[in-house]
Amino acid sequence: MPEGTYCNKKPINTPEEVNFLLSDSSGTKYYEEMKHLDVDSELLASTIEKTMKTRLKTWLEICAHCGMCADSCFLYQVNGKDPKQVPAYKIQSTLGEIVKRKGKVTNAFMRHAMEVAWAQCTCCNRCGMYCPHGIDTGIMFGYLRGLLYQQGFVPWELKIGAGMHRAYRAQMDVTDADFVETFEWMVEEYEDDYPGLTVPVDVADADIFYTVNAREVKHYPEDLAEAAVLFHAAGENWTIASKGWEQTSLAMFAGDWAACKMQVESVYGAMERLKPKRMVGTECGHAHRATVIEGPYWAGRPDGRPPVESIHYVEWLAEALETGKLKIDPDKRIQEPVTLQDSCNYIRNHGLKKATRTIMQHIVAPGYFIEMSPNKEHNYCCGGGGGFNGIGVFRKQRNRALLTKRDQILATGAKLVIAPCHNCWDAIRDLEEEYEIGIRWSFLKPLIIKMLIVPDHMKPVE
Predict the structure, then answer these.
(1) Which stretches make up the 4Fe-4S ferredoxin-type domain (predicted)?
(2) Which pLDDT does position 344 carry in this prediction?
(3) Other CB atoms closer than 10 Å to residue 258's CB: what's the count?
(4) Angle of CA points 346, 352, 356, to nearest 5°
(5) How much of the chain is helix, strand and coil, in % rounded to 5?
(6) Which CATH class is domain 330-451?
(7) DSSP, res 279
(8) How far from 147 is each of 123, 284, 383, 400, 411, CA to CA, in Å?
(9) Residue 230 and residue 194 in contact, taking contact as beta carbons nearer than 8 Å
(10) pLDDT of residue 213
(11) CATH for 39-154?
C-alpha cells in the first residue's frame, strides 16, 4: 500500500488535516496502516545523494567502534548496558544500513529505525562530548529522522506536531488572536496586584521582543503574566508580536525540515518587522535551539545568526539580577535543599551554565543549592527530550528513560527541582507521577516573583 488514509508521506498543512489525524485516537489506525506503507527506495537514495554532506559521510566511515560513547548514553545505562543501545551501534544499524543499501530497505526495517530514532535517542548530544573523533550521533539521528519523516515513518504525535507548525505556526492549535487575547487576559488578572501592568503588542524598536512556547498559551497562561510582571518590575521596554510569537519547533523533533524553515522564518519575520534590540525566549530548551542555534541555517542566513541578538530567558534573568534591575529579598530566598536541571539544548549545546549558576546564587540561601552529579554540560538528559515525552506508543521506554534523572535527584536529597525548560519540567513532573519520590518542580518565574522586592511603581495604592 503506497499511501494510507492516516499514515502516508504527505505533510499536514491545514487545520482540517490536523483535526482529521487527531480523530484517530492514539494513532491506532495510523500505526496499523504504517505496517503496510511502501518504502520509496529511489526517493530515499536520491535524498541521501543530495543532502548527505561530507561531515555525515565521514562520521559514518571513521567510527572506530571503540565504545567510548557507550557509558555517555543514559539510555544504554538504564537498559542494562545492552550493546544494541550503544550510540555508535544505533546509528550504524539504522542510518548506516540505509546508506549501505542505497535506500533498498523494507517496511519492517523502517519501523525498527523509527523506534531506534525516537525511543532510543533523545538527540541530547552527550555522546559527542566523549567521542575521541568528535562524532555527534545526536546530529546524525536528526538526519535519520528527516529521512524517516519523508517516508511516512514518524510517530503519530510528531506528525501532528509538525502539521500544527505548518497550519498555525505554533506547536498547538493556537492562533495569533488566541495568543494576544490570552496574554492580555492574564495580565488583566494580575493588574490589581501590580498596578500599571500591561502587555505591549507590536511595539517597534523595543529593547526586548519576547517569544513563548505555545503550551504556555494553551495550558500554562500564568507563565505569560509572570513574564510581564518581571519585565515590568525590571523597567524593561519590551513587546510581544501579534504574529511570529511562537519560538518552539516540534517539526525539529519530527524531522520535518521544511516546516522547521517555515516556523523559524515566522519568528524572524517578526524580528525584522519590529526591529527590537534583542529577542528573549521563554524557559524552553528546544525552542532556543530551534530559533537561535539551528534556525539561522534552516532559514539560509549566511552569518549563522538570527536577525537580532537572541538570548534564552536564563541569560536575561541572570543579567537583570546582576545589574539590580530585579532585586531579591534575602529573607525570601529558597531555604531548603534544591537542585537544578541543566537542559541539554542550552547548557550542552549553547554553553549557558554560568547564567544558571548566577541565578542560583541570587535566589538560593547559602548552603541549600546542591548540584546533581554529573552536572553542567556533563549532565544527563531529563529522559524526555527530543520529543520522547509526547510519544504514547513509546511511553514504556520513556518511563524507563526517566530512571537516570530520578536517581540523580534522589542522590542530592533535594525536594525542589528547578527546571527552566518545558521538556525537562514535563519529564520531572512525569517522573514524580511514575515513581513518587516526593519532589516538587518549578520554572524560574514563579519562584522569582515570590521573593521579588516589588519596586514602588508596582505597589498597589492603599
Answers:
(1) 60-135
(2) 95
(3) 16
(4) 105
(5) 55, 5, 40
(6) alpha beta
(7) E
(8) 15, 26, 24, 27, 40
(9) no
(10) 97
(11) 1.10.1060
- Of 361, 362, 369, 332, the C-alpha closest to 453 is 332
- Flag whether pLDDT at 187 surpasses 60: yes
Q: Sheet harboring 338-340: ordered strands across? A: 338-340, 416-418, 440-442
Asked if 196 and 204 touch (Cβ cutoff 8 Å), the reply is no
Q: What is the pLDDT of residues 359-399, one digit of tens each?
A: 999 999 999 999 999 999 999 999 999 999 999 999 999 99
Q: Would you call 301 exposed, middle or buried from its count of C-beta atoms within 10 A (0-12, 13-18, 19+)?
A: middle
Residue 462: per-residue pLDDT? 67
The distance of Cα 403 from the centroid of its chain, to the nearest Å, equals: 20
Alpha helices in 214-367 (DSSP H): 214-218, 222-233, 250-254, 257-274, 285-288, 295-298, 313-323, 353-363
Q: Identify the band that residue 310 occupies on the pLDDT scale cut at 50, 70 and 90.
A: very high
For the chain, the domains span 39-154, 168-325, 330-451
pLDDT above 60: residue 456: yes
What digits encode the pLDDT tens for the residues 268-280? 999 999 999 999 9
Q: Which residues of 189-224 are buried (b: 16+ CB within 10 A; e: fewer)?
A: ebeeebeebebeeebeebebbbbbbbbbbbebbebb
Q: Which residues are 429's β-sheet partners?
A: none
Mean pLDDT of the region 115-141: 94
Distance (Å, rounded) from C-alpha 176 to C-alpha 429?
29
Phi, psi values for residue 4, rounded to 5°: -95, 170
Question: Which residues sit opposite 440 in a β-bridge?
Answer: 416
**What grid cell was written down for 97?**
544500513
Give this prediction's pTM: 0.95
Please state whether 80 falls in left (phi above 0), alpha (psi between -120 and 50) or beta: left
- At a CB cut-off of 8 Å and minimum separation 6, what does 323 contact? none
Q: Are 409 and 339 in contact (CB under 8 A)?
A: yes
Q: From CA 222, how far away is CA 353, in angstroms rounded? A: 26
DSSP conformation class of 292: I
